[in-house]
Amino acid sequence: MNMKGHRLVFAALSLFALAVLGFAAVWIGGVNQDEGWYLYAANLVAEGKLPYRDFFYTQGPLMPIVYSAFTFVWESCGILGARIFSLAIGVLGILLAAFFARRLAPADKKNAAALIVFFVLGSNLYHLYYLAIPKTYALASLFVMMGFFLLSFLNKSSFFALLSGVSLAFASGARISLGILLCVVGLWLLVTRRYKDLVAFCIGGFGALALVYGPFLLDEKAFAGLVAAQRYHTSRGGFDPVWTIGSFSRLVRWYLPLFVVAGLGIAKMFSARAQKCSLAGVAAIGFGAVFFVQMLAPFPYEDYQVPVMGLFAASAAVVFVSTFSARREWLQLMLVLGMCWASAFGSPLLEKWTTNGQDRFWTLKKEKFELAQMREVARRIEALDPGGKELLTQDLYLAIESGRKVPDGLEMGPFSILSDEEWKKLISSAPCKIAAFSGYAFAIDPPECKERPVEKQMEYWKMLKEKYNLVDREEMFGQNATTLLLLERKDAKGGK
Prior knowledge:
By secondary structure, the chain is of the alpha+beta class. The chain is 63% helix and 7% strand.
């Protein structure tokens, strides 16, 4: 088989892996509290409400703004539909990362570089899962990779620099920490004396930033909310080196094949001589800059890095393919694909998604996948309250799945900030016929996100018991498998 035939086989294998692992990420992947309040924020924007001003929101405003145009997806298909939609966006980002690597690689190794990027991202179960759950990652990764892909066309026109600035500004509009990429690219254009491109890049970047953040800066109440959102991030405070080192350790574990590829080609990372190779170095620096900024967070979860892993993958693939002979390309591709498949098959996520740990000698196998379980609970809520529009809950993914709204103030689920007085007023008013409370109920005391004192939690539960009757319960429900209680207001028809 000639080289072209080998590449077609590898492309078919990588597409097969993407389909299988993508299905696993969408349907089997554990539910996450965040996907509920991100989708709920999009619903609120679709109703005409403004982030920061009309409801509390902690990230850049672009994700709920973009997703607000597609609320019909989860209104008709629930979180399953939202996951498919998000994964589609994420896959576009993977494709752009692959094409970006192809643009930068030597002429005889372009296809190999693109395939390697597709291997290390498209055959990575962890990466696909965090692209699938509707957080900011899929949209942010798309804008990041689009921005850098456009930079590879600078030799054609400065207009591409302007578009790149727009795209990277939009990335920071989805996740504020990605704004450092604007600085990295701008500095590179300055150092390389591409003044015309720099001017175009700045026009695009500042113009897009003004478009995204301008309305919130001009609105006094929205600006106050935006500032409060950033204070929310920093209020957890402190620095735990054990947590930070652990976060990096887990990142290496989830992306081990990518780190191996980068390690094998690291010696040539800074040996670039041509403009195209220098852009691979800029991509690597951009990844490093975002990585460093996000690791400064008090609790830097490793999934924060997902939006920039495409930059790391593209730069690693370019330097990796430059280290081997084109005549042995199929062997290197087989090595990388084999590592990726072995890593995906051995992923701890598969065990986490199918079991609830172990009781001494016995493994506790899940009776249903978490998303299927949530869909069933949503049907039970509908049976208790046919055609209902509201649900008293902090589990916003359940509100999304059941197509209901939550009382004002609970837009961020367990991370919503309500004072003691506000909690008591809300509970005593019993605003909804049906309530659903899991182990997250009243447990987190934001913004520090410490555990609320047990005495205070019990006080809220006692007040809730005075207004509601227990009508159903679901064991091992949702994120981290807590008990979910379904409650019915005592004065509701059929209340017990």
